Amino acid sequence: MAKSTKSSKKRTVKVEAVGTVHINATFNNIIISLTNMQGQVVAWSSAGKMGFRGSKKNTPYAVQMAADDCGKKAYDLGMRKAKVYVKGPGAGRESAIRTLNNLGIDIGEIIDVTPMPHNGCRPPKRRRI
């Protein structure tokens, strides 16, 4: 009994002229996602995807390369304006925004969505030496 192979179609995402940019900057890596207004990812990139390893992943240069990679893809697909959401304490957050702006994607507003604890977890007990 032969198995029937089912061909899967690649999901197409509708790209509009206006979208959003989500920059997740951790201490170890940075992930940049460009989405349309419905939240579907148009293009993404990270410092690890660009070939940087270890502590070099969280440098402004690695962030610039990642932003350049996904920004070119989105620009070619038709994205021209974007709203930027920045999350996390990592280095190179401004460098990513500057790179996207230089590619021709007009940055409308920049919103910091870094989660902040409102007197959250109880701190660990004092160290005894």
Short recap of the structure:
22% of the residues lie in helices and 26% in strands. It has 129 residues and is of the alpha/beta class.
| CATH architecture label name | 2-Layer Sandwich
Q: What is the strand arrangement across the widest sheet?
A: 3-2-1-4-5
**CATH fold node name:** Nucleotidyltransferase, domain 5
CATH superfamily: Ribosomal protein S11/S14
Q: What's the order of the H and E elements?
A: EEEHEHE
Distance between the termini: 71 Å
Quickly count the helices.
2
Q: Helix/strand/pairing class, anyone?
A: alpha/beta
Number of domains: 1
What would your notes on this structure say?
This protein has about 130 residues and is an alpha/beta fold. Helix content is about 20%, strand content about 25%. The chain has one domain (about 20-110): Nucleotidyltransferase, domain 5, CATH 3.30.420. It has helices spanning about 60-75, 95-100, and strands spanning about 20-25, 30-35, 40-45, 80-85, 105-110. It has a 5-stranded mixed β-sheet with strand order 3-2-1-4-5, covered by helices on one side. Helix 2 links the parallel strand 4 (about 80-85) and strand 5.
Outline the fold blueprint:
Elements (H helix, E strand, L loop, with lengths): L17 E8 L4 E6 L5 E6 L13 H18 L3 E7 L5 H10 L3 E7 L17
Helix pairs in contact: 1-2
Spell out the key features of this protein:
2 helices, 5-stranded mixed sheet, Nucleotidyltransferase, domain 5, single chain, alpha/beta, 129 residues, 5 strands
